[in-house]
Amino acid sequence: MLVIINFCIDGDIIDVPQFVAENINEYQSSFLEWLFDKSNEHEYWCYEDGEKFGCNYRSEAFVEWLNSNPLKRENEKASVVSSGSPKVNF
Fold first, then answer.
1. What distance in Å separates the CA atoms of residue 23 and residue 27, rounded to the nearest whole number?
2. Other Cβ atoms within 10 Å of 44 Cβ, number
3. pLDDT tens profile 30-57
4. Facing residues of 6 across strands?
5. Do the bridges between strand 10-15 and strand 79-86 make them parallel or antiparallel, or are there none, so unpaired?
6. How many Cβ atoms from other residues are within 10 Å of residue 86's Cβ?
7. What is the enclosing helix (H) or strand (E) of 31?
8. For residue 27, is pLDDT > 80?
9. Phi-psi bin for 62: left (phi > 0), alpha (psi -120 to 50), beta?
């Protein structure tokens, strides 16, 4: 099922299993908790003077997290369909 992930001026389209799309806000919250938990080592951290201070990411990070965590034992995985599309509002 396709889901649009909006950023400030554009968005990405990802394909996820239906149960993820139906509960996308819950998955987003869990992802953001993981992303900004400074005890987690991942490639999305920004550093200043050797200290973690924020993250730089797009939908690839969310898809990677979905596939490595909630979808780890699922046959159907998430994927990025399009990146940098014009922002869509409903």
1. 7
2. 16
3. 999 999 999 999 999 999 999 999 999 9
4. 11
5. antiparallel
6. 7
7. helix 24-35
8. yes
9. alpha
Spatial neighbors of 73 by CB under 8 A, at least 6 apart, are: none
Residues in the chain, how many?
90
pTM for the full model?
A: 0.89
Answer yes or no: are the C-beta atoms of 14 and 80 closer than 8 Å: yes
Amino acid letter at 73?
R
Q: Which two tokens stand for residue 27?
A: 């998955």
| Cβ-Cβ contacts under 8 Å for 37 (sequence gap 6 or more) | none
- The span from the CA of 15 to the CA of 70, in Å, is 15
Measuring CA to CA, which residue among 37, 39, 42 is closest to residue 68?
42
Closest alpha carbon to 5 in 43, 54, 62: 62
Is residue 64 within 8 Å of 81, Cβ to Cβ?
no
Q: Could you state, in order of their start, the residue ranges of all structural domains in the chain?
A: 2-86
